[in-house]
Structure formats: C-alpha cells, structure tokens
Amino acid sequence: MPIEQTLVLIKPDGFKRGLTGLVMDRLDAAGLELVAAKMVRVTEKLAREHYRELSDKPFFPNLIRYIRGEFHDLKQNQVLALVYQGDNAIARTRQAAGATNPEQADPRSIRGSFGRVTTQGQFENVLHASGNLADAEREVQLWFKPEEILTPIYTAAAANGKKK
Ligand code: DAT
Ligand code: MG
User: Fold this and answer.
1) Is 29 in contact with 95 (CB distance < 8 Å)?
2) How far is the CA of 94 from the centre of ligand 2 (A)?
3) d(CA 79, CA 93)
4) Is the pLDDT score of 159 beyond 90?
5) 128 is an active site residue
6) Nearest atom of ligand 1 to the alpha carbon of 130
7) Residue 28 has pLDDT above 60, yes or no
8) 147 C-alpha to ligand 2 centroid (Å)
9) For a substitution probing ligand 1, which of 9, 65, 100 has the most ligand atoms within 8 Å of its CB?
10) For a surface tag, which of 6, 42, 76, 114 has the fewest beta carbons within 10 Å of its beta carbon?
C-alpha cells in the first residue's frame, strides 16, 4: 500500500462539544500518524473552495455557514486542521469517521457515536476527512503550505485548481 496523507478538520460541532481530543485519540488508535496541525479561521472563500464540488447542492449555503461555525457561535470561524499519514490513510480515516449521514454511520464510528442530524436537516458530523486521493491531494494543499507539513508528499502540480 502506498503512503498517503489525508486532510482532517475538526468541524465546529466537534470543537464546541469538546470532541477534539477524542477524535485525535480514535485516529491515533487507528494507527494514523499526525504530520501537521493548526487552527484556521475559515473564510467564506476557503469554505467555498473546500466544498466547491458541492456548490450546486441545495444544502450548500448552510454547509458554508456550518463549516464557518455560524451555527455554533464560533466568533473566529475556527476549525482545527490536521494532516494524517499512513498506508491507505485516506480509506482508514474515512472508516474511523463513518458515513456522511451520522444516522447511517456505524454506531462505533466517530460520526455514528457523536454526530447528529438537526431538526432543520443539517448534518453535524464532527469531522471532515478527505474522500479519495484526488480530494486529499487538493485539500491538503488548499489548507497547508508544504513547510507546515513534517513530510509533504503532494506536489503543487496536483493541487488542480488550487486558488490561494
Ligand atoms: P463527506 O463529508 O462524508 O465527504 P460529502 O463530501 O458528500 O460528505 O459532503 C460534505 C458535507 O456536506 C458533509 O460532511 C455534510 C454535508 N452534506 C452532505 N450531504 C448532505 C445532505 N444530503 N444534507 C445535508 N448535508 C449534507
Ligand atoms: Mg467529501
């Protein structure tokens, strides 16, 4: 298996509910290695770029508000951004995270244990985890400069439309 890196974000609900350490514990237990970490103020521009493939979805406007902490009273629009590394790291992180809809996620997964769907239909699913290699390459480079990662493996050429 090739060494991969994957982007994890502790989303505003995870941050506000005090689940940051728990998520990191679960990913540690899954054998993933932390290679970058920082608090980030999520601008409208960064949020839209991160979720650009979902821009035509009906839930997109609320997704942008959610990731910017507007439903959780986060005055700094902050998330914790992490990069994890390992063999097959992308799929292993997704496995630990669980399915997108917390109601359908394995109850032992992070989202199955701690996520919820609000009565307004908003998925509050605790963390972001890159979905595939193309997303991981793009997202790691969108959120981190190479020098912020202990051992960067993705090259700028693969950023594919990166706008900073
Ligand atoms: P994932 O975060 O599991 O990669 P995704 O990339 O399809 O899922 O969607 C990104 C986020 O958008 C997801 O974490 C929560 C939100 N979302 C996805 N589908 C949704 C839906 N049907 N209703 C409300 N929010 C949704
Ligand atoms: Mg996704």
Assistant:
1) no
2) 10
3) 18
4) no
5) yes
6) 4
7) yes
8) 25
9) 100
10) 76
Q: Which tens digit of pLDDT belongs to each residue from 97-149?
A: 999 999 999 999 999 999 999 999 999 999 999 999 999 999 999 999 999 99
Mean pLDDT of 68-77: 97
Among the options 50, 92, 111, 128, which is catalytic? 128
Mean pLDDT of 13-33: 98
| 150 Cα to the center of ligand 2, angstroms | 24
Rg of the chain taking only CA atoms, in angstroms: 15
In angstroms, rounded to a whole number, what is the distance separating the alpha carbons of residues 156 and 164?
Answer: 12
Domains annotated on the chain, with CATH: 3-150 (3.30.70.141)
Q: Find out whether the beta carbon of 123 lies less than 6 Å from any atom of ligand 1.
A: yes
Q: Residue 164: its pLDDT value, please?
A: 42
Cα separation, 6 vs 4, in Å, equals 7
Judged by phi (left if over 0) then psi (alpha if -120 to 50, else beta), residue 34 lies in beta
- For residue 128, list its beta bridge partners: 9
Strands 116-117 and 127-129: unpaired
Predicted TM-score of the model (pTM) = 0.95
